[in-house]
Amino acid sequence: MHKRQSGAGWKWSTAAVLAVAAVLGLFSGPTESFGLDVPRLSGRVNDYGGMISPPVRATLEAELASLESTDSTQVVVLTVPSLEGDVIEEFSIRVGDAWKIGQQGKDNGVIFIVSKADRKMRIEVGRGLQGVLTDLIAGRIIDRVIKPRFKQNQFDDGFLEGTRAIIAATRGEYKPAPKATTYISPHRYFEAVLVAVFLVLPFLRRINRFLPIPAGAAGGPLLHFLFTGGAASGATLGILAAVGAVVGLFVAGIGSGGSIGRRHGHHGTGGGFWGPFGGSSGSGGTGAGGIDFGGGGGSFDGGGSSGDW
Amino acid sequence: MKNHSLLAVITVLLALSLLPGCGYNAMQANEEAVKAAWGDVESAYQRRADLVPNLVETVKAYAKHERETLAAVTEARSKAGSITMTKAMLDDPQALAKFQEAQGALSSSLSRLLVVVEKYPDLKANQGFQDLQHQLEGTENRINVARSRYNKAVETFNTSIRIFPNNLTNSMLLHLKLKEPFKADEGAATAPKVKFQ
């Protein structure tokens, strides 16, 4: 009798202890792991948000690896799908503390963090680089280089040019571009040229066979003016007018003999015309750069700049 | 007999292993860490104070009617600058409270200024002002980071002088006092968030 009672009592107390432990666990759990977990450092470009295309990622990996080999400066890119309610400044300092980007003692690391869903970004700068990549310059890179591209969903371009601007700044070479009123991506320029050559000029040719020639001559400089904000010398505009006229001449010529060969020729000229704007994937292909990559022991103090788009 | 000597050896080894465990060195190292963390807090606040005159001048040029707000910022800055807090005063709760109050007053006067600025689109578009905003935002974030690191160092130190056997070592030899952490205040938890555009 007595034994049974004490046995039951023991069971009750165990249950009570377990219940208290469960409740404590429930309440201590979330407070202990407050904020978004720091993801694993998987290379120089950590695209957990899926915002960067593979060729651009490879280019960035290669450029950042070569930066470290020459300057010992470590720059890494991190994208996350969402901050899950965390504050980007607090998340980024935790990432910095965990990844220890930059060399120990030099603290020459930079982390470029982007959260896709929150449309927020931050450039976290190690103390050793704050003399060259100041809060101000980090802010300008966000405002003038990255933000305008992100706003147009040109993420590849934004990551590429933004990272290049960061690299230039760590070398003390970043020259802020004059404040751009509107940024129009090279891709838009390219599209406009395609529309002009393959839709507008043939349409004008229907009205008058020779209309594409003066239209091309006027259109070349006009497109350039529209898409670059008019920053061009007279000579450049003259060349563009000539190129436009030649394109117009080709368009005017098409159809008289159904000359596909000549169209190809025209396409070739066109390639030269928009060539400088197209290829950005460059010297990629060495995506393996990140495999034995790790932080060098650098530390962060909260310097840098944040922004959104 | 054999068992006894073995026991003796184990006892001696245990006693030896406990010697460095008295915490004499660890406590002092922790105190140095607190002082170093305080140095970062001070320099972050100093950095902000250095930005203020420039900010006030820039805003003044565009927002002449906001004399009161601007004067409040200048006054709060000089008040905060007049309160010096040396590393020897870190165990004085009142000194830290005064320091925190003065810096908090500067924080809130700055946030009022940034609210006022919303009325002046020309000022917000001004390059110099945008640059200052970036710098101010950077220093506010540095202050946050430095403060939370300082608090962490204080926590480690305070724990280390309270636990056994360190508390005995401390009361007999070192006489170190508990350090004072920053209390979360309106200005700290959500430092004046500089809002862009």
Would you write up a description of this structure?
The complex is a heterodimer of chains A (309) and B (197). By secondary structure, chain A is of the alpha/beta class. Chain A is 56% helix and 11% strand. Chain A is built from 9 helices and 5 strands, in the order αβαβαββααααααβ. Chain A has helices at residues 2-32, 54-71, 88-99, 135-151, 155-170, 186-207, 212-228, 234-253, 260-278, and strands spanning 45-47, 74-80, 109-115, 120-126, 300-308. In chain A, α8 runs antiparallel to α9 (260-278). Chain A is elongated. With 197 residues, chain B is mainly α. Chain B is built from 8 helices and no strands. In chain B, α2 runs antiparallel to α6 and α3 (67-82) packs antiparallel against α4. The radius of gyration of chain B is 24 Å and the shape is elongated. Residues 187-193 of chain B have low confidence and may be disordered. At the A-B interface, α4 and β5 of A face α6 of B.
Strand content of chain A: 5-15%
Gyration radius of chain B (Cα, Å) is: 24 Å
What's the N-to-C terminus distance of chain B?
84 Å
> Could you report the average pLDDT of chain A, rounded to the nearest whole number?
78
Give the helix/strand class of chain A.
alpha/beta
Unreliable stretches covering 5 or more consecutive residues of chain A: 1-7, 25-33, 257-290
